[in-house]
Amino acid sequence: KPGERAYLDGRPVADETILGLITADARRLLPLAGLLVFVSLAFALRHVAAAVLALTALLISAVWTLGVTAALGIPLSFMSTCVPIMILVACLGDVVHLLGRYQQLLRTGSPKRDALGAAVREVGDACFFTSLTTAAGFAALAWSPMEIVRELGIPVAIGVISAFVVTFS
Asked: How far apart are CA 98 and CA 164, in angstroms?
């Protein structure tokens, strides 16, 4: 009737509002954050190519995660915006350990192929079990009674495993 107002409320409205705010923030802050991560990696790994390699592994892992999540029919929610950050942590941890050890071995005079093989052998098991237990912990969230928590657990578990696979392949 004239003079009356109707309001929409509930989780769908809240999700849409929050997702819009997060998207706007991501568009504004993601380039700066990417640059900061790149500079930090280049400084930590002491090589620009290593930083590019690390960010490439991160991007591939994120794309794989989104693809598998979509194939499984897991909906995107505002909690899904946390997934890339968690993949970043898992992926970069593996990359930094692998490349750091590889560079140490190169400095001792090891040939590149031998250094890479030794680095994979030396840090591979630790990174594998760390990734496996992290993924299992997040996968356990699939049994949470809260839907929003379930929607976070499986994508992060997929992302952690994909980060390991991408890093070591």
From this structure: 11
> How does DSSP classify residue 142?
G
Cβ(93)–Cβ(166) under 8 Å? no
Long-range contacts of 46-50 (CB under 8 A, 24+ apart): 46/103, 47/103, 50/99, 50/103
Q: What is the mean pLDDT of each run of 10 residues along the chain (169 residues)?
A: 77 77 81 87 86 88 87 77 80 87 91 92 94 94 84 88 91
3-state secondary structure of 2: coil
Q: Are 48 and 42 in contact (CB under 8 A)?
A: yes
SS3 letters for 24-58?
HHHHHHHHHHHHHHHHHHHHHHCCHHHHHHHHHHH
Query: Residue 112 is encoded by which pair of tokens?
Result: 């590149």
Structure tokens at 70: 């979509």
**pLDDT, tens digit, for every residue of 65-103?**
888 888 988 877 767 777 888 888 877 888 889 988 998
Residue type, 104: Q
